[in-house]
Amino acid sequence: MTDASHTPSPTQATRPEHTVVIPDDVSMVGLLGPHDELLRTMERAFPQTSIHVRGNVFHVSGPSGDVALVERLIDELLEVLDSGLPLNRDAVERSIGMLKAQTELRPADVLTMNIVSNRGRTIRPKTLGQKEYVDAIDENTIVFGIGPAGTGKTYLAMAKAVAALQAKQVNRIILTRPAVEAGERLGFLPGTLTDKIDPYLRPLYDALHDMVDPDSIPRLLAAGTIEVAPLGYMRGRTLNSSFIVLDEAQNTSPEQMKMFLTRLGFGSKMVVTGDVTQVDLPGGTKSGLRVVRDILRGVEDVHFAELTAHDVVRHRLVGAIVDAYGRWDEQQHRDSGHRSRPDRKESSR
Questions:
Q1: pLDDT(187) > 70
Q2: Pairing of strands 302-306, 142-146
């Protein structure tokens, strides 16, 4: 006769307890965070799972699927630490998101990928979408990075441009964006040409200073190795052996977009970035970025990378704001569609 006291209940059977022993050479403070902040992050992400740490041993119990994810998460975080990178709450949350999404890429592969380093700072993708975007730039001649603010579209494209220049894959970098507020007609603005275009190109200069020694930037600009110019100055040129980044492409007209894309020369690479929800063109003017998706989708060696609010790497509130605006826009479209439908009774008259 079986002793019932030794027969696990169905609930107990689905809540196995596993132990994970952390190697002695790993800093538990680095893994758990100051005041166990990272441990608390794990617990919040898996509310049905119990995670206790004693010494260098994790005791994990809960639903079998969650226990397995926690074990994988610990392995990924250990690999990140082993690469020499510190952990923070953002990295842990992004790792959990990738594991829950059941992607083929490992979080450690994403978080430890280096694009370019400058003055002790390394630029790397922080999300799965960003990693796929960076890989697409390596694999295609023309890449469109489309997504909301804060997803790193332009920043990562410029980092890849600097890396390509340092590796001598290209001879120069060309950074451009449309000066929409001035309608590409800069003559009426006061000052020299540099004074006129500087406000529109300043974000590109700011990003460049993060990636290149600031003392060398004037020399590189003077030599033409790096060029920052309004989109209108691209007309009539053929750009060979160049890494070309077009920023704020949602503010190009279809004609400007065609003009830009046909500047592509031999040995060059193009990255076009923009947010189709933030078009500043005059009323009635179509966005070249919206149109080009329909024209070039499916063309070989052209890739469209779609980034989302999940790829926002600014303050965590930015992602929530982007999502909230997206829901609001959808509701407005539904409401306007409902109002535009005629009343059945009146339509039958």
A1: no
A2: parallel
CA neighbours closer than 13 Å in the CB half-sphere of residue 297 = 9
Q: Which residues contact 32 (CB under 8 A, 6 or more apart)?
A: 38, 39, 53
pLDDT at 317: 74
pLDDT classification of 195: cutoffs 50, 70, 90: low
Alpha-carbon distance 186 to 81, whole Å? 50
Cβ 230 vs Cβ 237: under 8 Å: no
Inter-CA distances, 345 with 16, 170, 314, 337, 339, Å: 62, 67, 51, 18, 15
Tokens of 335: 């409401």
Query: pLDDT digits over 150-174, tens only?
Result: 899 999 999 999 999 999 999 999 9
Q: What share of the chain is helix, strand, coil (3-state, %, to 5)?
A: 50, 15, 35
The residue type of 11 is T
